[in-house]
């Protein structure tokens, strides 16, 4: 049974567009995109969801906590699960928050570090070799109840796709530009609505199928 590991942030976790910042919500199975992908791939696949709201590609978050840094989290995920056959990686949205003062190149460098971990001889050997699909998240829009956290982030996120594409090509891995498939919700400018989850889930399934 092939195993798919989906590693990411709140949009992999299934967080709906935020209306009330004090309220925790999550789309159910069948709505959030990893489960849509799983259904499209077929029942012979196993799904492991590793999405954490607030996760960054490289930063200890001074507000949300050090554990938002994906670097140790990815190592834990790769040691907790397995053997896996395909891993999707979609991060970078939280890295464009104002408090991190990043450039698109710096965000891409953080993702590159995660790819170096996943593609290391140790982890590839541990899982018997696995494929990777790098997904560039759609650009954020500075609107809604969390817009102040992303001040300046729209411009930074719009430049990520070309950098991620080049990075994926340099590593010889799969690439999907989610911004060509979906848009973020106008409610909060960061998260995906149900329709977007459905479209992205189908697109990821196609991309995963093309990898194997």
UniProtKB/TrEMBL annotation:
Keywords from the named record: Hydrolase
A molecular function (GO) held by this record is: hydrolase activity
Question: The SGNH hydrolase-type esterase domain covers which part of the protein?
Answer: 7-198
Q: What's one Pfam family the UniProt record gives for this protein?
A: Lipase_GDSL_2
Q: Which CDD domains match?
A: SGNH_arylesterase_like
Question: What's the protein name?
Answer: SGNH/GDSL hydrolase family protein
- What's the source species for this entry? Fuscovulum ytuae
């Amino acid at each position: 049974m092939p195993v798919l590991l989906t590693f990411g942030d709140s949009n992999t976790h299934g967080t709906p567009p935020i209306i009330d910042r004090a309220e925790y919500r999550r789309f159910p199975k069948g709505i959030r995109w990893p489960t849509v992908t799983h259904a499209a791939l077929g029942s012979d696949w196993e799904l492991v969801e590793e999405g954490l709201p607030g996760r960054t590609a490289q930063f200890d978050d001074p507000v949300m906590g050090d554990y938002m840094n994906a670097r140790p989290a990815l190592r834990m995920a790769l040691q907790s699960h397995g053997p896996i056959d395909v891993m999707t990686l979609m991060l970078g949205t939280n890295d464009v928050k104002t408090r991190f003062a990043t450039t698109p190149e710096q965000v891409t460098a953080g993702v590159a570090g995660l790819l170096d971990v996943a593609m290391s001889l140790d982890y590839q050997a541990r899982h018997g070799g696995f494929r990777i699909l790098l997904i560039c998240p759609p650009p954020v829009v500075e609107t809604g109840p969390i817009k102040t956290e992303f001040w300046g982030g729209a411009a930074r996120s719009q430049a990520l796709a070309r950098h991620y594409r080049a990075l994926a090509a340099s590593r010889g891995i799969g690439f999907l530009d989610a911004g060509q498939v979906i848009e973020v919700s106008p409610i909060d400018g960061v998260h995906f609505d149900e329709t977007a989850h459905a479209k992205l889930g189908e697109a990821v399934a196609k991309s995963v199928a093309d990898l194997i």
